[in-house]
Predict the structure.
Amino acid sequence: MQMQQQLECVSLQVCVSVLGPLESVVRRCLGPEGGSVLFTRDTGETLISRHGQRVLSTLHLEHPMARMVLDCVCAHAKSTGDGTKSFILLLSALLRAIQDSAHMRRKASWSNPALQNLANRLMALSRNELDDIIIHQVTPYASSYCSHHSDKLEHSILDYLISGYISGRTGAGQAEILKHILCEFYYKSKRDQNTTETISFIHSHFNVLHTRVAGLPVGCSEVIEGLVVTRDWSVWTELRGPIKALVLYESFGSSLGDNITVCFQQDWLSRTESITKQKLAYLLELQVNVVLSSVKQPECVLQWARMNHVALLECVDSDQLDFLCNINFPETLSHPQHIVMLKYCKRLQLGGLRCAQLGIYSNAHTLVLCAPAPGLLDQTVCVSRGVFLMLQHITRTLESNQFKSSSVDQSQCTVSSQDLWRAVMQAGGVLPVGGVFEFLLHHFLLTRHTSDPESCRLLAEALLCVPRALYAHNHRRFLNIQTCFFNDLKKWDRTSVGDPVKFEFGFSEGLCLESVSGKQQLVVSVLECLHRLLCVGAVLYTRSLLRPQIYSEEDEEEEEEVHTNSI
Amino acid sequence: MALNADDEDFEWEPPSEAEMKVIQARRERQDKISKLMGDYLLKGYKMLGECCELCGTILLQDKQKKNYCVACQELDSDVDKDNPALNAQAALSQVRERQLATQPVPESNGASSSEPPLSITGQPRPEHCEGAASGLRGPPPTVQPTPLSIPTPASNFLPPSNPPVQTTPPVGSSGSSLHHHPALSSAEEAVLHKLRWATQELQHAASVEASIQLCNLIRGCAESLRSLKELQLS
């Protein structure tokens, strides 16, 4: 009987023991006061990161549950770009709370059916009640908070959002610089365009729109107009005005035509030469001044370019060429060749690197990110990419909410920039950073009249782990903030709608914002992952790898470990 | 809508003090293990999908493909405090249990010879075996710690489960004249035997705790030999 009970509670114990080390790894990197992890390889490469997903992916994890959690974290990060460390902390706190609640029930352990029942209840909570709480309780608070501080927030809500995202992810010195650069990048890329489209554009083309330069201080980062290609011109002439550029995906000498019978090498060589000359002459007729090629061109093409004052750029990334073609509506000569219009071509010096700068007829700018070390550069690029992913998540959520609520005027689908951020504020889409969302949700879960108080209580208690970890270095400050916040909340609860609310709760270090929808998505993702973990019935070990992911799940009554000799 | 299939889940009573302590201790141990494992993960160790057979902690593997269990090799094991070979208190509590079970006849020559001494060291370890220690504190401590109740092995130096050898003369003997009593010499022999065993064990001792215990045992043996000599001479 004892043995049976031990087997039954192994699943929860294993979850807790797997999540425990991951939590202790991630906790040290959390928040603005957190540190970074330095990874080194035997080859001498170093990677400095405090990005949760990067740190967790670099660890060697072979345990099937750990890998499953990692998959969930990566999937969450892909959609919001935010909250990977909080994910692990919240998940771990929930598992511990579940384990403790078993001890407190004077039962030896949770039985498997009871665990699965609890998992299902928590899922139901995330699907039904959480939405309700967020829409009817959290967002009104957020919108009244924003309207209270609207004088500060009016024109710079984007700045605060970006600084809220960055401050927890980079060092203090870099955060300021990066914030300015990213805001500048955004405003220059936008100009008169729609906010949502700009954000979506930047995010989807981020790979092409940024350039990395190692070896320079972070302060040398800048925003450059047009497209920057990290290759030097093979043949260079200064060109201005609208220029026709040929985009090539293959070498000139390669396509010879269909029906060629080769008799002698001499014959073949002279044929290829004549065909190439014809093609080049044709290009001159079209008044092509620039050739952009994704491969290396033969020497004769270089000579021809030098003689005819045609600028030639070789070995360009094909993604960048695709980008050029897509935004320029090129005329297609034949499949591997396109002609695009450029404003100008320039040569650029970035650190020790000589680059080419192509002026294009659109608002696109390139973000040049510099950092002294490759690891730091990687981190900076990750953070920048994450900023736009986070912004896109906000705008998409706002749009879907506007679409859902019928009270909004449907003709006002595309909102201009001022209106978008104002709409976000009014819809209660942003809250100050530092655990405000967790406090709010904790309070509303505990005071809610619900059919399932146990799950609400579990989630409410676990939510406080995130602010506790954020202020781990100064527990008194955490308690102060918590007390002050709950006093404010009580006052706000008591005032009726329309009365001005005096919010005393504020941050001395300046306002930073985070998105409510991102936080909600975090809680939902955590509860889904928890459900997956608790419903693992059996872990089967095989001697050989079936496929890269070894684990398999089955919903069975008993947990057993089976060693099998074959697949 | 009844989402709770299990009616037992409705009862929720606050836990008692003792249970809270147990939960707290367990949680602290788990936290320590997690922290150590986290440190090792960051050092490049691999988290395997297997658990240790002894304690159930998840195993780590270093770069030389050697498996490593954090709990067994770095923390004091939960069960070590109950192992009589490593802990005086555990041994004493085991002795007391056996004595209570066999119900010895109370002897005439005082309490000292049949009662196990308070401890070999004279200072009980506070965190282990509180219950055993408090049980043992009942009878007044002896002035001279008469020798060991560390259970002796049978002839083969393994952690014992045998009742201890009473080094003082057996209960019920005449107890008046102890001069050249065969019991004394056999006691001396047993103590010397024990001394030799402890020395050998000390040479092979791996952990600090075990070494300390063994040194104390040797001291106890020496003292008991001295008192036996005094008994013989007197």
Remarks:
- Residues 3-149+417-534 of chain A form a domain with the GROEL; domain 1 fold (CATH 1.10.560.10).
- The radius of gyration of chain A is 29 Å.
- The first strand of chain A starts at residue 37 and ends at 40.
